[in-house]
Amino acid sequence: MSPAQVFKIYIWLVDTVASGHLSKEDIDRRWAHSAINDFGETSFPLRKFHRYKEDILTLFGINIKCNRHLNYYYIDSEDDTQRWGDMRRYIVTAFSFKATLDEAEDMQDSMLFEPIPSGTQYLTTIMRAIRARKQLLITYHSFDRNSDYDMFFSPYCLRVFKQRWYVVGNASTHPDETRIYALDRVVDVHVLDNDFVIPKGFTPQSFFSGYYGVFRNAEPCLLRIETTQRAALFLRTLPLHHSQRELPPEEAKIYSNTPDCVLFEYFIAPTFDFIQQLRTFGAELRVLAPISLAKQMEADAEALLARYKA
C-alpha cells in the first residue's frame, strides 16, 4: 500500500471517530461502505486498526481513545479535535497538490517550486523519540558558532513554519529553558535509551499561543496596526494570528484619524519574525501600538531610505 493510500485511511479514521462516539462495530460498518476501502474488507482489521491508531498519535498527536465501560471510541480532547481540523486541511491540501502534479507530468518545465530545506530525513527519528519519550543526541550547526557541537536533547514537539521544520524541547546546553532548533541545521541524530518527562502543563498550543513563527525574543502584548483597504483584504482572508481582531469603524476612530483605513488588534509578541512579516506590507501598514514598536518601525524605515539615498 502506497504512503498516499495509508494517509487517506488515517484521514478517514480520524474523521469517522471525530463524527461521534462509535463502537468498533460502527466503524466496521462505515469502513465496509467506504470509497477508499480498496480491498473490499467487510470490517476494519483489528490489528491494523490499533496500528493505525498508534501511527495517528505519533504523526499527528491525535489520541483516539476507547471508553471500555460504554464500548465506544472517541477523540481524546477538544484541543485534539481542533488541531485535527487544521492538520486535516494541511494534509488534504498536500494530497490535492500531489494529485495535480501526477496529472501534469508533461508540464514539469512549466512549473517552478521553492527549494525544500534539508532536515526532513530526521523527522521519523524525532517523531519516534517524542512518542517514546527518549532523549536524542543531536549534532547541531548553529549560525552563531564556527563549528558543530553535540547536545543531549529531550524533544517535546515539532513545528512547521514557512516550509521549515523545527523541534522544541530541552537541551543540555541550556538546561533551564525550552529551546527551538531548526532541523535543516541538524547534522546528525541518535536516539538514546535515556527517558525524559515533558514538563507538567506544557502543550505546543500554549507554548506558541502568543507568538508568530518560532522566535520568542519578546513578551506578548496588545499590538495595533493601521492598514489600507487593500492590505485589509489580505489580512481578512489570511489572518496573521489567531488573536487578530478587526476594529469596527467607531472604535477605530479613537486611535486613528487616517481616512479610509482599517485597524486590527493582536495579542502577540513583537518578535523578529512577526516584525519581518509586518514589513512585507510596506507603506500599506503602520504600527500604532505599542509605541516602542512604532518608533522602531519608523527608525528602520528611515534607515532604509537613507541607504537608498546614499
Layout of helices and strands:
Layout: H1 3-18, H2 24-32, H3 46-60, E1 64-67, E2 72-75, H4 78-103, H5 123-132, E3 134-140, E4 149-161, E5 164-171, E6 174-182, E7 186-195, H6 204-208, E8 221-228, H7 229-237, E9 245-246, H8 249-255, E10 261-268, H9 272-279, E11 285-289, H10 291-309
Helix pairs in contact: 1-4
Overview of the molecule:
The chain has 310 residues and is an alpha+beta fold. It folds into three domains: 3-97, Arc Repressor Mutant, subunit A, CATH 1.10.10; 120-207, SH3 type barrels (Roll), CATH 2.30.30; 221-309. It has ten helices and eleven strands. Strands 6-5-4-3-7 form a five-stranded antiparallel sheet, with helices on one face. Strands 9-10-8-11 form a four-stranded antiparallel sheet. Strands 1-2 form a two-stranded antiparallel ribbon. The longest helix is centred in the first third of the chain and has 26 residues, at 78-103. The termini are far apart.
Q: Which characteristics define this entry?
A:
single chain; 310 residues; alpha+beta; Arc Repressor Mutant, subunit A; SH3 type barrels; 3 domains; 5-stranded antiparallel β-sheet; 4-stranded antiparallel β-sheet; 10 helices; 11 strands; 40% helix; globular
Q: In summary, what is this structure?
A:
The chain is α+β, with helices and mostly antiparallel strands. The protein has helices spanning 3-18, 24-32, 46-60, 78-103, 123-132, 204-208, 229-237, 249-255, 272-279, 291-309, and strands at residues 64-67, 72-75, 134-140, 149-161, 164-171, 174-182, 186-195, 221-228, 245-246, 261-268, 285-289.
